Amino acid sequence: MTKKAILMIAAALAAVSGAAWAQRDPAYAAARAAGEVGEQPDGYLGVVGGGNAQLRALVSNINIQRKAAYTQKAQASGATVEQLAFTSGCNLIAQTKPGEKYRTPDGSWETRGAGAPVRDSRCV
């Protein structure tokens, strides 16, 4: 599987996945808008700070759905789950809007400003 093919699959997955989860669960949209959750370079959603049990359960559920989607796409494409998850993470961070949280490559949480987010140098 070529890197270009992996990127195309992951981009499609990220675009559908992020939008679908945000529309399905108002609690997710509210937590994202409040800066309580954010996108991570590994393709999974993270809790900013400790969060409460309900928020951690929400994030865990979304991440289970993401892993299932990454696994399905990986099996169909010949890529690894980790490759698809990482590429999706790159795309999901790029798709954040100003005011939303994301994790930088050094592990710190940042709030997206008007400019481009800081992403892993391997992101295309």
Task: Explain what you see.
By secondary structure, the protein is an alpha+beta fold. The protein has one domain (3-111). Helix content is 56%, strand content 10%. The protein is built from four helices and four strands. The protein has a four-stranded mixed β-sheet with strand order 2-1-3-4. A hairpin with a 5-residue loop joins strand 1 (37-39) and strand 2 (45-47). Helix 1 runs antiparallel to helix 3, helix 1 packs across helix 4 (81-94) and helix 3 (53-77) crosses helix 4. The two termini are 16 Å apart.
Radius of gyration, rounded? 14 Å
The ordered H/E elements are HHEEHHEE
Oligomer: single chain
For the largest beta-sheet, the strand count, sense and barrel status come to: 4 strands, mixed
Distance between the termini: 16 Å
**pLDDT < 50 runs, ≥5 residues:** none
Structural class: alpha+beta
Q: What is the helix content?
A: 55-70%
Q: How are strands sequenced across the largest beta sheet?
A: 2-1-3-4
Estimate nothing, just give the exact number of structural domains: 1
Strand content: 5-15%
Q: How confident is the prediction overall: mean pLDDT?
A: 87
> Treating each run of at least 4 consecutive H or I residues as one helix, how many helices?
4
The number of strands is 4
